[in-house]
Recover the amino acids of this structure.
């Protein structure tokens, strides 16, 4: 069985607009260097992670955004997220669903 796409492929134009302009969450926009932006490109935590000092923050924001927008996670991404999460067993995640 093929998993659903992680992105908003089936979203309406309006939902895509709301996602692109989402300022309703503290983790929506995070400033990074141009170098980090180029390195990450369109990769997920299965293939790219920022500096170890910010792993927990990055993963929390990644997962919160996935939940907020109802985005799917593929198997490799899921395994990476679970592996990284094992190193922070007492972390709590809070998010609010996007409309």
């Amino acid at each position: 069985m093929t998993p659903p796409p992680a992105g908003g492929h089936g979203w309406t134009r309006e939902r895509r607009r709301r996602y692109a302009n989402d300022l309703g969450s503290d983790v929506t926009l995070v400033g990074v260097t141009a170098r980090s932006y180029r390195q990450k490109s369109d990769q997920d935590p299965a293939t790219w992670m920022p500096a170890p000092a910010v792993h927990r923050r990055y993963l929390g924001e990644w997962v919160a955004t996935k939940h907020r927008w109802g985005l799917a996670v593929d198997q490799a991404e899921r395994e990476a997220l679970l592996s990284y999460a094992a190193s922070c067993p007492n972390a709590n995640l809070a998010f609010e669903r996007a409309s």
Q: What stands out?
A: The mean pLDDT is 83. The first helix runs from residue 13 to 20. Residues 49 and 55 are 7 Å apart (CA to CA).
